[in-house]
Specification:
Blueprint lengths: L22 E7 L2 E7 L5 H8 L18 E4 L2 E4 L12 E3 L13 H8 L9 H14 L5 H7 L10 H12 L3
Parallel strand pairs: 1-5
Antiparallel strand pairs: 1-2, 3-4, 3-5
Helix pairs in contact: 2-5, 3-5
Length: about 180
């Protein structure tokens, strides 16, 4: 004997409240609560860029392959293009715009990227920096091979990789 569950066309409890049209969402981004209305299928990247005017995270591949959209959710790096904005309610989102101090003082990794000339066109730089700060905090900076491995999800079409690794080493070494 089989038990019949709801069909795909039947609504479960509470589903009518969260779509298919725009729904209210409150996101905590860079320490500020931001309210917006979005469809449940909107990616975090599109919500940040198109609704909240935070253009630091870049739309590179929109498939999770390049890392240009790297942000932190609750301190862990994620690809914003593969994350639904709706799933981020109640969590802290940090973008490159929130990395500098409240007084505008650049984060040490941002300063190291400038000092080491770790960018050329700059398109990938926000995602590279967000990953670099995270891998440094995670302790994945023992040598160039480890840095390379932990940064491998962030592509640079200008091939500034040696300079990026130099910036990570500079922050690691307190230079």
């Amino acid at each position: 004997m089989s038990v019949r569950g709801p069909s795909l066309t039947e609504r479960g409890p509470g589903l009518g409240e969260r779509g298919p049209g725009p729904v209210p969402v409150t996101l905590s981004v860079n320490g500020a609560e931001r309210s917006l209305e979005i469809e449940p299928r909107v990616s975090l990247l599109d919500a940040l860029r198109e609704r909240l005017d935070l253009t630091g995270p870049k739309k590179g591949c929109d498939q999770g392959a390049c890392g240009a959209c790297t942000v932190w959710i609750d301190g862990r790096r994620v690809l914003a293009c593969l994350t639904l904005a709706l799933s981020c309610e109640g969590r802290e989102i940090t973008t490159i715009e929130g990395l500098a101090g409240p007084d505008g003082q650049l984060h040490p990794m941002q300063r190291a990227f400038i000092a080491e000339d770790a960018f050329q066109c700059g398109y990938c730089t926000p995602g590279q920096i967000m990953s670099a700060v995270a891998l440094t905090a995670e302790g994945h900076t023992s040598d160039d091979d480890e840095i390379k491995e932990w940064m491998s999800g962030n592509l640079c079409r200008c091939a500034a990789y040696p300079h990026i690794r130099a910036a990570v080493r500079a922050v690691r070494d307190g230079s």
